[in-house]
Amino acid sequence: MTANIGNSLKIALRNRMKNEVLKSMTVESRAQQSEAIKEKVLQSTDFRHAQRISVYLSTSTEVDTLELLKEMFRLDKHVYVPTYSGNNMEMVRIKNMDDYDNLPLTKWNIKQPDFKEPRENALTNGHGIDLFLMPGVAFSLAGGRLGHGMGYYDKYLKRHFNTYPQKKVTLIALAFREQIVAEDELPLDAHDVKIHRIITA
Q: How far apart are CA 177 and CA 29, in angstroms?
């Protein structure tokens, strides 16, 4: 498959998921699925064994991670969340729910640590991240993940793999049932990082 065909398929799928599928989901369905997904994550071996976990701070159209965040702090996990500046994403540590509550809001109304604020950075702390809980727009059961088109996670994961080449890292996507698509709907490019597991309701 040529890159142009692959890109046009991705753009069409991204638009359909964002403008039709995700928008048509009810608040109740999102909440029920998010709760079921949270329970599955907490019961998973990958989660129980991980000490340092990256988790996204969810928007209204993503699997809600707020209750998961609370449980991670209760279990004394080290929690890392994305912060963005231009084309660059870093994973930095937040300490507790007070720290989370005090995070500034971006123009998209999402909480995010200030990029310039001195925080523990997963790429420079000597340990890295054990488990990534990842967002996305669409997923295939073969490990394909369609993000928002900026390539933040793909670029970041490659940097993480290069920084910690010996480290075993698990990539898990959190997805609504409606976000799972057929393999041929979600073409993978050479630079796309495949995820290990998808957790749905």
A: 10
